[in-house]
Automatic annotation (TrEMBL):
Record protein name field: Calmodulin-like protein
SMART domains in alphabetical order: EFh
Pfam families for the chain: EF-hand_1, EF-hand_7
InterPro entries, A to Z: CALM/Myosin/TropC-like, EF-hand-dom_pair, EF_Hand_1_Ca_BS, EF_hand_dom
UniProt GO cellular component terms: myosin II complex
Gene3D superfamilies (alphabetical): EF-hand
Residue runs in coiled coils: none
Domain of life: Eukaryota
Domain EF-hand: 6-41, 43-78, 79-106
Keyword Transmembrane helix belongs to the record: no
Molecular function as annotated in GO: calcium ion binding
Alphabetized UniProt keyword annotations: Calcium, Metal-binding, Methylation, Repeat
Length: 106
């Protein structure tokens, strides 16, 4: 949990706010945009770390493709292996195939 408990209306407002292509769902780039905005609003290092921990299931300091797929599936995003790999590539600055905390917060 990210410490949020929005109402249905607030959730719909948030979706409408970040749903750039207007398809009624939030895809990963839109999700990243939302998270970036929320983090700017709170600007809390601890909340960023908490969000990272949500993805980093084995707590090894990295988000793997499998961990990313798991969380996104739980959020209702059914992603192909190619989509997960593309998301990792987009965020993986050092090219090691996983996302560390510094890459996550960029």
């Amino acid at each position: 949990s990210l410490g949020q408990n929005p109402t249905e209306a607030e959730l719909q407002d948030t979706i409408n706010e970040v749903d750039a292509d207007g398809n009624g769902t939030i895809d990963f780039p839109e999700f990243l945009n939302l998270m970036a905005r929320k983090m700017k609003d709170t600007d809390s290092e601890e909340e960023l770390k908490e969000a990272f921990r949500v993805f980093d299931k084995d707590q090894n300091g990295f988000i793997s493709a499998a961990e990313l797929r798991h969380v996104m599936t739980n959020l209702g995003e059914k992603l192909t292996d190619e989509e997960v790999d593309e998301m990792i590539r987009e965020a993986d600055v050092d090219g090691d195939g996983q996302i560390n905390y510094e890459e996550f917060v960029k």
